[in-house]
Amino acid sequence: MTWRDEWRRVQAIVWKDLTTERRSKAGINAVVFMGVLILLLFGFALGPDTEALRAAAAGALWLAILFSGVLAFNRSYQLELDGGALESLLLYPGSRWAIYVGKLIANLVFVLIVEAIVIPVALVLYQVALPPGWPALIGVTVLGTVGFVTLGTFYAAMSSRSRAREVLLPLLLFPMLIPVLLSAVEASTSLLGGDPMLEAGAWVRLLGAFDIIFLVASLLAFEYVIEV
Amino acid sequence: MFGRHGDGVDGQKTKTRAKPDTPVGESTPTQGAYSTIRLPTVTLRIPDRDVAAATITNVTRRFGRRWALRGVTLSIGPGEVVGVEGHNGSGKSTLLRILSTAIKPTGGEAQVFGADVVRQPTTVRGVVAFLTHYPGLYDDLTAEENLRFACRMLGVDFGRVPPVLERVGLAREAGETVRTFSAGMQRRLSLARLLLQRPRLLLLDEPYNNFDPAGIALVNEVVREVRGAGGAAMIVLHDRHSAGDLLDRVVRLKQGVVLTDGPAPIVGDAQTSTRLTDPRESTLIAGGAA
């Protein structure tokens, strides 16, 4: 198997996952609804104080993405488990990492689409104006999402064969996400406030480092977690 | 001199790998699947009769505290079709899943055309096709899309999809989502996916389930084709009559051990009933498995 063969397999999995999702639409509806609902609940909990809402906006947004994203990861492997497709997928000749990368890219596209809907809602609900450095904010969002999806796809594979996967996935995933969550929230909060202390850069570098570490570790370990 | 196939630039013979229209991973000399005989002007590819299609040596497999297989030793020759029988939980499906590389054995060794299922799984997956209990299809994709996905995963040209769909009788339903298919149609589509692969070892787990007589005939036809091409097949079955005269041997498992292994009796022969009530079976029932 050459790199070209493996890339062809990655593309096939991305196409299959996104086509399936586009046809059913059940996943995106549920995940977007969940994300917006969490933002609303946080808004009610924080009260009508505009300053408090603005200060908590980044944290609330990332928690909404995290909680709703877990639904997406579970669903990603549920598609394979229905009708025994996971075993068939694993029996195609080729490397297991291609399956992981395919799932990772499909989940990344899915979560980014969800974010494209949820982030504007958050900006309106929490009365946050876009700062001048908004492209950097998009960069932080993408980096944070990559870290989140990397771990989410990996742990969803690990828990996919468990009967209690809906419970197991958050238990495994959330503790590991703390560094990503912390870096993403701090960087986003700094950028939303105009980054007066120029501290966002340090958080972004940390976020990038976590992304690389998690990606490499997941690629190396995926073959073992997906084995029976 | 005129670019004769296999000649080196200086006219000396070079060891070249034959490029047959074969499935992925087939027929490298290191796999021992074929002997390449070089003649001055032609290359002959002859199935190597010395290399077993599958060799299973003292294989064990444990799920938790339960032993599904307890030291199974078998060999399947090229061109051989072996039926595997036994009660539920006797280890039939586990044996097939080990040969397909879906699961690893707890102990022992298994090879497919010389490739070890644990150490060379990718090579094994290139020559094995496994029809499982489950359809293994994506409900929201159409029949054609499911096969095109399989083509991309296997590295096979999309051009194979229409004739394969035609062969399994689903050409008219090619554009319909699998969600709308009956169990039998889904089974046909699973079989179609196997046909894309042109396998050398067919592993069929209760392949006749959900098939009408035409479907059963189709399964048997596919097995005969694989056998005719020097491949082999291992078929888990409860109803031997569906296989007709297809089987060369029948292996009977009981509680994870091989109870009997011998030539398949002619369908309707009195031996059928004799084999099913082998005295060793009653010994195992009375004394527990070894």
Helix/strand order of chain A, N-terminal first? HHHHHHHH
Helix fraction bin of chain A: over 70%
Strand content of chain A: under 5%
Please report the total strand number of chain A as a whole number.
0
Strand content of chain B: 15-25%
Structural class computed from helices and strand pairing of chain B: alpha/beta
Query: Helical proportion of chain B?
Result: 25-40%
**Low-confidence runs of chain A (pLDDT<50, min 5 residues)?**
none
Average pLDDT of chain A: 89
Number of strands of chain B: 12
C-alpha geometry of chain A: globular
Described by strand count, sense and barrel closure, the largest sheet of chain B is: 6 strands, mixed
Gyration radius of chain B (Cα, Å) is 21 Å
Judged by helices, strands and strand pairing, the structural class of chain A is mainly alpha
Give the count of helical stretches of chain B.
8
- As an assembly, this protein is heterodimer
Walkthrough of the structure:
The complex is a heterodimer of chains A (228) and B (290). Chain A has one domain. Chain A contains eight helices and no strands. Chain A has helices at residues 3-24, 26-46, 50-81, 85-90, 96-125, 134-159, 165-192, 200-226. Chain A starts with a helix and ends with a helix. The model of chain A has no long low-confidence stretch (mean pLDDT 89). Chain B is α/β, with parallel strands linked by helices and 290 residues long. Chain B has eight helices and twelve strands. A six-stranded mixed sheet of chain B has the order 8-9-10-5-11-12, with helices on both faces. A four-stranded antiparallel sheet of chain B has the order 4-3-6-7, covered by helices on one side. Chain B has a two-stranded antiparallel ribbon with strand order 1-2. In chain B, strand 1 and strand 2 (43-47) form a beta hairpin. Chain B is globular and about 45 Å long. In chain B, 46% of the residues are buried. The interface between A and B is medium-sized, with 28 and 33 residues.
